[in-house]
Amino acid sequence: MAVAAAGAGSGPWATQEKQFPPALLSFFIYNPRFGPREGEEENKILFYHPNEVEKNEKIRNVGLCEAIVQFTRTFSPSKPAKSLHTQKNRQFFNEPEEHFWMVMVVRNPIIEKQSKDGKPVIEYQEEELLDKVYSSVLQQCYSMYKLFNGTFLKAMEDGGIELLKERLEKFFHRYLQTLHLQSCDLLDIFGGISFFPLDKMTYLKIQSFINRVEESLNIVKYTAFLYNDQLIWSGLEQDDMRILYKYLTTSLFPRHMEPELAGRDSPIRAEMPGNLQHYGRFLTGPLNLNDPDAKCRFPKIFVNTDDAYEELHLIVYKAMSAAVCFMIDASIQPTLDFCRRLDSVVGPQLTVLASDICEQFNINKRMSGSEKEPQFKFIYFNHMNLAEKSTVHMRKTPSVSLTSVHPDLMKILGDINSDFTRVDEDEEIIVKAMSDYWVVGKKSDRRELYVILNQKNANLIEVNGRSCQVHVAVYNDPSEHRQHDKAFSPALPPKWPAVPTARGDPAAALLTARLPWREGTAPRQSCPLGRCPTCTLCGNSVRGQETLCNAVQQHLLLGLTDSSPKAYLKDTRQTFGHMQVTGHMTDCIQDKGKAILALKNHISTQSPDLLRFLDFKYLCGIN
Amino acid sequence: MGEEDYYLELCERPVQFEKANPVNCVFFDEANKQVFAVRSGGATGVVVKGPDDRNPISFRMDDKGEVKCIKFSLENKILAVQRTSKTVDFCNFIPDNSQLEYTQECKTKNANILGFCWTSSTEIVFITDQGIEFYQVLPEKRSLKLLKSHNLNVNWYMYCPESAVILLSTTVLENVLQPFHFRAGTMSKLPKFEIELPAAPKSTKPSLSERDIAMATVYGQLYVLFLRHHSRTSNSTGAEVVLYHLPREGACKKMHILKLNRTGKFALNVVDNLVVVHHQDTETSVIFDIKLRGEFDGSVTFHHPVLPARSIQPYQIPIAGNGFCRGVSAAVLPRGCVLTMIFGSHIKSYLWNLQVKLEPIVNLLPDKGRLMDFLLQRKECKMVILSVCSQMLSESDRASLPVIATVFDKLNHEYKKYLDAEQSYAMAVEAGQSRSSPLLKRPVRTQAVLDQSDVYTHVLSAFVEKKEMPHKFVIAVLMEYIRSLNQFQIAVQHYLHELVIKTLVQHNLFYMLHQFLQYHVLSDSKPLACLLLSLESFYPPAHQLSLDMLKRLSTANDEIVEVLLSKHQVLAALRFIRGIGGHDNISARKFLDAAKQTEDNMLFYTIFRFFEQRNQRLRGSPNFTPGEHCEEHVAFFKQIFGDQALMRPTTF
Fold first, then answer.
1. In angstroms, rounded to a whole number, what is the distance separating the alpha carbons of residues B13 and A282?
2. Has UniProt tagged this entry with the keyword rRNA-binding (chain B) (predicted)?
3. Is domain A200-258+276-368 annotated with CATH 3.30.450.30?
4. Facing A606 at nearest CB: one of B482, B572, B602
5. Domains contained in chain B, number
């Protein structure tokens, strides 16, 4: 599949081709328990999109999904099927609450070609969609529903099926329109949170501010603080914050253009309540505090649904680029008086704080120097704190997330991620993509880093060294400096330059990061292991190919020994799963199909679970 | 008025002496704080009592006439007695020196001696109505040598022993004051200055009364305190005390005005850098602190009493057989640094030191910021401040966070000042300036310096234990303290961080903890990393946080290896140690042991081969040396993979 990706991306599409992105075909929610008997199947369906579909077809589709899930359950009772691949579309199944199933059907992307006789030929691209991406999207649908409506079960308790149906209809009718399936990618899998880099003192000031506000407005239960759409503090638990963050950054914030940015005489500015002391304003709730009839209605959200099951009002208040979410218990109805008090307490402080942060941010930026457009792009994600950073994605807009790289590269990133998911151990994958692009994926101690490099005629050593440098740069980026994950994980692959001087000294960090990257890698003269006379695969001397061999030995996973079968196996998987290696190695594989088979046997006796990593059929064309 | 309301009290052990009467004359020497009781001109005995010494000095001297003034030199070496207006008699109290009296007549003709002051153990100043004369006493020769003199008309004089400054009142209105400073045989004339007298009715001649002037050292600076009475013509609300700053060099300047807001008779005291003003009519006192913020009008700062007026705490004197007798103030209130109150009782009189009680003030001053400013300037403030901190964090008297923040900031401001002084001292010592510059002194740590361990031990550790406290408040307070320390750039001790972690963990607030660590609010340290490691079973990400922290410390590489090995992450450990270039020195046995424990043969193979290669590279042979104690592992390797799997030495 990687070969397909690399091949397809080798140039702009021919003019006669027409491309249709993936699209949502249908989306439905059902509970098999609600219509167990024949003739009552319709009762199972709680929500169906598009609603216009004829009733029998709805029932048929739901029945099919039910059957597939049931069928696969016999093979894997705990993990029934997650997705179904067909030529035209792909179905994703999710059971967020017991017996409640959500199904999303996505049409595969289509290429419409003109055949020689002028007739359009439709070609479904079956392998284009990544299961993980769209499964994540489906899960997100549920999380978002739950955030604003609570669990399905709660609705059932409150008002039975009718209420549940009503809520689902109300929510998904609008929400589904905001799904932009064509631009879903790796970031949807992560569902990460971008943290704002900040120095300790300013951070403590924010802490102090939050504590004081929570004290003086004592009905506030939780607070979250964001700057520039990036999170600084969350009083909510991680999972709740994750989905709230998604809502804020992709829906609420983009809808509210900054009136500060608008011109003085613009209509937006005129609408703002005339407050000269500060820039604070409500993003949810009353627009104009001076209007005695202003409505103080805030969206309700549901958090900690697993245990405490809390229902809260969500008050979002913003001054310049700083936004604060105050969450108060839903049993207390915030009054206009309360809003005015909040405005007078928070507004001035937040305005000052926002300009403090801005100033501090600019200082940090200046310290890091005027960064030129870097030669690489990266995506970073830490599973532990959901910290996410991407230089691949442009600013998020409500409609699409724009990426600055070719979709095929994004697809490779997704592929690498899928590979990472299969194993718990740390690993590293290097992929040669089209037109001098290299993609490097590293996974280490629950962190993932993906780097996209573009370098003419680069070889493995160079790419490896280069990505090490990127790693150094990412981890020591001064803007990132005092933020999360500054450290190297000790479990990172070897030969990554140590940066003892980088600690606490941004200048030193930069220096390290900007060293000519070749210095960080193994020199060409000798093998890092002291000897490298033979190929690990065929045993033949590869003196003419030291470079490649070194590189393979050096970077591929263990790098500690050249002859551990396990290590070797991973090497091959990585090498051939994604990389088109030219020269000796490829020859080895193709000529020595027997060697592979022997190896396969060897491994199946040693550690059978490793076998699933190897797609032998694809690898060598042998079966 | 409850007992806890009195903020001024008398000292525990007063100096007790016989009441003055025609046969018994009593004198008080401010310089040595001694009370002299002279019976019958000394013939029947002189008893000298000081506040500190328990053994009174008693001696006899011949009755040569009425004693006008009697004072010991510093260290009680020489006794000076004035009996006539022209002469002063001396008597040595130094062992081996003659005890015969000798006499010195003032040099200026027709002058009358107004008094004398000892400026050291052997130097004395005569103040006459025509000037001053500075003498050195030569006890072994039983004579005096005139060092210096100065002529001017003197109405009255005043002496401040701590700063060795004599103030002379000159001119008809008596309001031009001429200060002189004495040090080690030298006398220097300071610029004179004029005290502005309040406008008085034409009928009476205005003049500056000696009773309205006092000199005192406040916060290390010498001030002349002038009690300006309320004048009927002006529309001021009451009397006030004007403080003129008298610097070592330069002119005297009017600096502070203390508003008394009442009229009548007053007496002044300075205790612990506070100006205490006693009001006779109401028998109450008020205190002023010139360091507290007042209203500044561009040249002078106006101050109001820090606290409402209160009496001095009544002192009960036990009298044998009679139970207790409440003393009544005899209203003798000399100016100066010590309050002398002589209580008339049946037979005795008492001299007391006045003290400020800090505990009652805590409740009298509701503004915590001002209270801190006040307390931090007091000598015996430490425990009181700590109790204030504990109190503001208590359930019943809980202060708001901004107030708590202010208090912490004030504490840390003082703490930082001390740390800076300490640091610059250490740097100066290092630079070798200590010998060349005698001015370099090790900074004194006053009680106002409350460091992190003080606050931790006396305030915070007890505070976090309180079950009834909402955890939100506990964390907010801890963060506020850490913020304050950071704001003053004071390195936060790890036990404070541990307190934060402990509290967060107790309430399962792991995500908050994670965020704090993410922003490095909790600074890296080995103890903290170990604590995190121990939390892994409750919160798995703590493992990553801990390892990251150890890595950042860059001094904890051994720990990292141990942690990884204990988690059976043998490869990761090896990679790490190789990454920092330490793989040539590690113990092969340790890694092989760990690899064997994983029961993963492939892993063992890998590790084994790595060390074989290391041996090859370092020693030219893949074999292990006996010193590495790896025989067991070699045997194990052979058993699993066979002899032929061992690496053969390569020969080139």
1. 67
2. no
3. yes
4. B602
5. 1
Chain B residues 606-645 with a CB less than 8 Å from chain A: 606-607, 609-610, 613, 616-617
- Residues A140, A146, A150, CA angle at the centre, nearest 5°? 175
Q: How confident is the model at residue A327 (pLDDT cuts 50, 70, 90)?
A: very high
Chain B residues whose CB is inside 8 A of the A207 CB are 479, 483, 521
Residues of A in contact with B560 (CB under 8 A): 490
Domains A200-258+276-368 and A376-476 share a fold: yes
Confidence bin at B550 (pLDDT 50/70/90)? confident
Chain B neighbors of A606, CB-CB under 8 A: 602
Token pair, residue A332, equals 């207390």
- Report residue A611: phi and psi, to 5°: -60, -35
- Contact (Cβ atoms closer than 8 angstroms) between residue A156 and residue A147: no
A531 touches chain B (CB under 8 A): yes
The residue range of the domain holding B582 is 557-651
Quick check: is B18 in a domain?
no
Report the alpha-carbon distance of residue B575 to residue A496 in Å, rounded: 10
Average pLDDT score over residue span B523-527: 84
Residue B561 lies inside a defined structural domain of this protein: yes
Helix, strand, or coil (residue A307):
coil
The count of CB pairs under 8 A between chains A and B is 149
Q: How would you classify the pairing of strands B176-183 and B186-189?
A: antiparallel
Of A200, A492, A494, the CB nearest to B519: A200
CA dist B338 to A392, B213, B312, B326, Å? 77, 15, 14, 22
**Alpha-carbon distance A562 to nearest alpha carbon in chain B (angstroms):** 9
Whether chain B has a CB inside 8 Å of the CB on A526: the answer is: no
- Output the six-digit token pair for B191: 């610029």
Cα separations in angstroms, B592 against B26, B312, B571: 93, 80, 11
- Mind listing the pLDDT tens digit for each residue in B95-136? 777 778 888 888 888 888 888 999 888 899 999 888 899 999
pLDDT class for B318, splitting at 50, 70, 90?
low
> If you measure CA to CA, which chain A residue comes closest to B483?
A204
Q: Do B548 and A385 touch (CB under 8 A)?
A: no
Boundaries of every domain in chain A: 17-184, 200-258+276-368, 376-476, 546-558+579-622
Is omega for the bond preceding B360 within 30 degrees of 0, making it cis?
Answer: no
Residue B538: pLDDT band (50, 70, 90) is confident
Interface of A with B in 428-447 (CB under 8 A): 445-446
Residues of chain A contacting residue B479, judged by C-beta atoms under 8 Å apart:
204, 207-208, 211
| CATH code of the domain occupying A17-184 | 3.30.450.70
- ipTM of predicted assembly, 2 dp: 0.79
Average pLDDT, chain B: 82
Residue A275 pLDDT more than 70? no
Distance from CA of B602 to the nearest CA of A (A): 7
What CATH fold (topology level) applies to the domain A376-476?
A: Beta-Lactamase (3.30.450)
Task: Please determine, for residue B412, whether its predicted confidence score (pLDDT) is greater than 70.
Answer: yes
What pLDDT is stored for residue A457 in this prediction? 66
Distance CA B369, CA A17 (A): 76
Nearest CA-CA distance, residue A238 and chain B, Å: 6
Chain A segment 484-513 residues within 8 A of B by beta carbon are: 484-496, 498, 500, 503
- Is B479 close to A204, i.e. CB distance below 8 A? yes
Q: Among residues A474, A505, A321, which one has the least CA distance to residue A387? A: A474
Average pLDDT (B400-428) is 91
